[in-house]
User: What shape does this take?
Amino acid sequence: MTDGKWTAVLSPDASAAALARIASAARPHHVPHCVRPHLAGGGAGLALAFHWLDRGLPGQGWDAFAEGYLAAAFRGYERLGASPGLFGGAAGLAFAAWSVSRDGAAPGYPALHDRIVGESFARARELGDGPVPARAVDVVSGLTGAGAYLLCRDDEPGSAAAFRTVLTVLTRTGARGRGEPPDPGLAHGLSGPLALLSLALGKGVAVPGQREAVGRLAEMLNACRTDDARGPDWPGTTTGSAGRTVRASWCRGSPGTARALWLAGTALDDEPLRDLAVRALKAVHLRPPGERRIDGDPGLCHGLAGLLQITSRFAHDTGDPGLTSAADRLAAVPFPANGDPGFLDGAAGAVLAVLGAVTDVEPRWDRALLLA
Assistant: This one.
């Protein structure tokens, strides 16, 4: 493992070329007065992207775009409201506001933060002690997504208490499993709660039984592996498509699952588990495009940008030259040509993934993906 200091994954020449592409893709434009507040495809995601552009390329005016999109997203929130979720709701806007304005100065942020805290307590109570549906605790719209934001604010007493309540629900769920076929994916399945529980352990935040739940969830993921000649795999099946494997993506495939297992191995100081995670990611890079089924999609959720971000994290954490080379190849990911500017499926996410590979600024925005 490396010493923890983030450095660019790509060579200087490759980084320079990638930065030129980024500057062209994010060229100055008019910021709307009011936009949808969502992180996935709205103003919150664009505010996050422009903030990290300013961090990676300071002095070029990107901070004004970050603040402009954040203000427009809050106007959208006031007009349209939002569900509690991370990618389509209030938790994602709170995450963007915290990222862009660490001192909490963004207008409307304190009240929004208080809403996330209160709703996290309420949603945890509603789940009670019975079976917990996967969607209720997933990253996209459930408690794990809210927990990703609360983990960022564990320095504040209300947030810390709400976060421990979320961890208690996830620990209970992870310790006994779910009464439904396991989905290994990070966005909606076992890997999301595993990643959050592991990250919390890494920060020294734990509730009774949490460590054991991390081990149990890792065992469950190991049990539903389907290996091939290239290595460990979690191909799963797509809903409504009998027998068709999912993409090798952040959201449901092996890359996101591998990252969750790496975080678990780190939290438990389990070297074999970390080794399994690395082998699983390397296997993704060995598979041809027709098998991994992401090469035509540049996005974070289903496509190449998500694989790039995960690979960059692994390359940084392990110092493995093979993973560094893989990230270098992926950094040529095309920015979407369909006009989608969004964080999860569009240009903002692709720009962020490339930016993280070519600058010395740690891409902490990927807490929203529960990658670190």
